Amino acid sequence: MTVELSSLEERELEFIVGRSAEAAAFTRMLQENCEHACMILHVYGTGGIGKSTYLRLCRRWAKQQDAIFVLIDSSDFIHTEQGLVEAVFKQLPPVPATGQPASCNLNGLMDSLHFLTLERRLVLSFDTFEEMPEMESWLRDILFPRLPKRTLLLFSGRYPLKGRWIVSPALRERICQMELDYLNLPDRMEYLQKCGLDNPELMEKLSYSTRGHPLSLSLAAAAYSPSSPAFGNDYFDEVIELWLREVPDHELRKLLDAASLLHIFHHELLAFIMDEEVSSKAFNRLIALSFVRRSQRGWQLHDLLREFIRLRLQKRTPGLYKRLKQRAAQYYADALLSAPYTEREWEAGELFRYTGIKVARALMSEQEQRSYYWETATQSTLADAVAFANWRENHIKPISGVSVDPETGTSYSIEYTAEEIRLQLKPIDLSEVFALDPSSIKLLRNEHGQAKALFVVIPIHSNTLEWLESDPLCSPYLNALTREEKDKLGTPPERPAGWFMRCTYYSDLLDPAVRTAGIYLIYSYMFRGGVFVSSPFVNEISRRAYMGFGFHEVEGATHYYYDGITPTPTYAVDTQGAKLQDFLERLFSRTGLEWQEKRQEKPGVPDGPVKAGVPESSLDGDQLLTKREKEVAKLVLDGFSNSQVAKSLYISEITVKKHLNSIYSKLGITKRIQLAQKYR
Fold first, then answer.
1. What is the dihedral of CA 31, 32, 35, 39, to 10 degrees?
2. Where is the HTH luxR-type domain (predicted)?
């Protein structure tokens, strides 16, 4: 797509210095003959080294050569195959009519890309690649081989591509990797001069103190620019204050404080957690700040500034901090209740940013979880899973450790004898499981691609029931069900009725980062709209963990599989239908948050951008509708579609449908035309 850059973006790019070698590499690959297969360019380096800036430069260079440029950020989509396909589709230019619209799936995407690249090059770029590790195998093994020849795949991340990216000679010869380094002395001086600094002594001091690290250099230049006083060596704290000078009044500071608590925010969410109306004018001022950037799901504060403000808010006003956190958790809990099954992954992930479970806080390490990622086994990585399982079964040592909940001081012992570990690690035929359903095998890797854990989580559907009924660990659960309950499990493979966690292998159970990754994987299955079942080896820590997570013991599903002597319970959690709210209420209760049974309408966007023709008074007579429902009704009566209503009120289409259902219920109607008849 030919992307038009704003005048501000063009001006910012004029301040970029160095990177001539990197520029040459991109333009050369864009111009190269690519008749055999598409190419991959991967730039990597530490945080603040300028990876995102480099992609912006590539976007400008692509525009100059009339290439289609698609930029995907890791935070802009749900990390699933379908989520990525949808994200790419949204940025593609329109495809001339071919008789029927392209299907929004992988095949439809490939058809569109092949058509668009008949005469133009395509650059498919991924920023913060290290934050989408669960997609790596799929990108490499499924997407990459199917891309058109005239495609340049552009990655930016913190680490070089390793493992299977470079094992294959055919793949390796298609990859160019470049590490972005610090700026050299001439480039530093050139940058400082462009920023208006002309004191040689000061410039040398800043050059030395930052070592040419691009982000540090830009912060230092901002602190010592001619329009600001000299702040000495403590320039970073002062640069934070420089940013905050863009926020001169109390109203905007208040919005900024609330936004700092949120990973990604938008108008509706911000108004909800503040529990008050946020005017369109105020919100527009917030998103116009220089340190706020647009993402596909809303807006984000600059990471460094967001963390600074959040910690300050937590320290100075702990009561307000807790209330905002409570409201954020409630917002995503509501979203889970209203969103369809296919949209729950994002909401579940956001919910657990604001909630925690007592035993989970002790077992997890929030700071270390990013360095590990789960990947679903493919044909090329199945051998890795088998090798890890074999290694684990042959390296058995006793485990003894203690984890402490940092908030309450409660300690939890993690104790397993070598014999107990051996009993847990009874061999399972992974090739058989892979043939049964490839999505069953999940392999945890660290940033270097090394395997650190293996989970076998088998979907429950018509194709797996026979195997599950024959398995000694799974069959007790199925045998405990009534015939009617068991029949409901025979769903189509594409929509499992649930999942059975058959086994979990850890390289080191005392590693909090590994445990954290395992717990988050469990969370993801708990919110998939089915029953999630597990029957781990009997141990005090596992019992407390499962009960703490909200699982219950399945009556009649106790077995003696592990050692033939010890009774082992089966745990299950069911989030199907109305059971989801019951689970969320228990989650809030366990984490000290208050579940609001009768919540008020989400305060949000006032009438600013809404220009409806139906007067307010014409909707007041009934006295049954809330203020927000009246706003929705007014727009509907003016002929607005659900999508137009959502855009006008800065809410989602799902929320619009929710309001309409409430309006219809209160007024005793079922259609839009009946709404029009009632008020006319």
1. -100
2. 618-680
